[in-house]
Amino acid sequence: MPQSLPDSENHKATLLGKIAQLRDFRPGSITTTSGRCGNPTCHCHRPGDTGHGPNFRLTYKAHGKTVTESFASLAARRKAEQEIEEYRKWQQLSRDFVEVNSTLCRLRPTAEAEATPQGKNRRKRSSRKLPAK
Ligand SMILES: [Zn+2]
Q: What predicted TM-score, i.e. pTM, was given to this entire model?
């Protein structure tokens, strides 16, 4: 991690650029189901049959509930895989973004320190009582 202020500012700008370039993303995961179904006359119950599947499912949380969806097509599955992959990039970028911002907060001088440069208005005497000329 860069620790100087300019380095961290550059890093922040770079991360922002990457975040801006993210495509559509969604949290979730793709799981597979396979095995034997409930129909005893199905081929999957024959000896040596490998069973059904794998069938791919998209699982994600919506309003606190776990939602599971099947895919209408291989293309739909590929699309969801890319969207989830993009979400992982977002998670990493957002972690890095918080980190670089925290670093900037530590490194950034306070406004008061910047507003009172040396040698101004910090002398022993107040100028308030000077008579107007
Ligand atoms: Zn079956």
A: 0.69
Cα 39–Cα 45–Cα 47 angle in degrees, nearest 5: 170
What is the tally of helices (H) and strands (E) in the chain?
A: 3, 3
Local structure of residue 45 (DSSP, 8 states)? G
Tens-place pLDDT, residues 27-47: 999 999 888 999 999 999 999
**In this structure, are residues 31 and 8 in contact, taking their beta carbons and an 8 Å threshold?**
no
CB 71 within 8 A of CB 56: yes
CA 49 to ligand 1 centroid distance, Å: 10
CA–centroid distance, 78 to ligand 1, in Å, is 25
Place of tokens 């507003």: 115
CA 61, chain centre distance (Å): 16
Within 13 Å and on the Cβ side, how many CA atoms surround 7? Answer: 6
The CA 84 to ligand 1 mean position distance, Å, reads: 30
pLDDT for res 76: 97
Q: Name the region of 59 (left: φ>0; alpha: ψ -120 to 50; beta: rest).
A: beta
